Fold this sequence. Notes:
This protein is of the alpha/beta class. The protein is globular and about 60 Å long. Helix content is 37%, strand content 18%. The protein contains eight helices and nine strands.
Amino acid sequence: MPISPYREFSIEQWAKLKDNTPLPLTATELEALHGINQRASLLEAESVYLPLSRLLSYYVQSTQTLNAQTAAFMQDSTPKVPFIIGVAGSVAVGKSTTSRILQTLLKRWPGHPRVDLVNTDGFLLSTSELEKRDLMTRKGFPESYDRHALLTFLSDIKSGKRNVTAPVYSHLLYDIIPGEFVTVDQPDVLIVEGLNVLQSSPTMKGEPTVVVSDFFDFSIYVDVEEQIVKQWYISRFLTFRDGVFTQPGAYFSHFAKLNETQAIETASKIWDSINLVNLRENIYPTRQRADLILHKGADHAIDKVLLRKL
Length: 310
């Protein structure tokens, strides 16, 4: 047997861990949480996400107790420290859908009703700055983010600061929205979703550096085989071609004029030259750093769960 730090569960095995807990989510509510070309059935929500939310609820409660005991030991009046969950994975694998479902379910467990969600797209460098640095074809790669701003944001959250703001990204504009922010005010749980949130960093001049995942209490990687996710990316591109690309002000409005064959060829080239490179060089190598891996099959359904051994 290969050596692995994970314990692997089939969906049938994992579903048993919900321990007869009823799913506090209706079909209508679940429909509202779906992303572009990414869907989860009520059965999957009950079999996969409900047990996961139960496990995470235990983690949150244990961490809250430990934080309170530590503060008492240190005779410190440190503000409430949010529990931070990182969600990583390639473009088009359904990270946002996973994050929204978990956010909704975690809110309904006792002890942590305030659950916020932030996407790291807001910390991408602006289009003008990326053009200045000749990084437009590297958008989504680690060097395309304002790393200092993201680390400062997470540090402020973990320090218990109130009303911490994060920039907002627009897929329509393909850029940061000037003057628009989301505010995070001491939630019980914060979910941070993004491509490279589990990225490690080499030491600089012999000194260790701080990375985004240093602030996580738990991390999840959404895993899909390369060829499968490529087809999902192309499908999403076609959906955008007929939707967001046709809207006034859309950055990629020229793609709306492509016929289906041209659109498929264009999406395939973008995937092979940019997203696949980022996946192989930066995203997939972080898979083994996750506490839990959700593996999906070609039908978009999660077919196994891997939990890091304690």
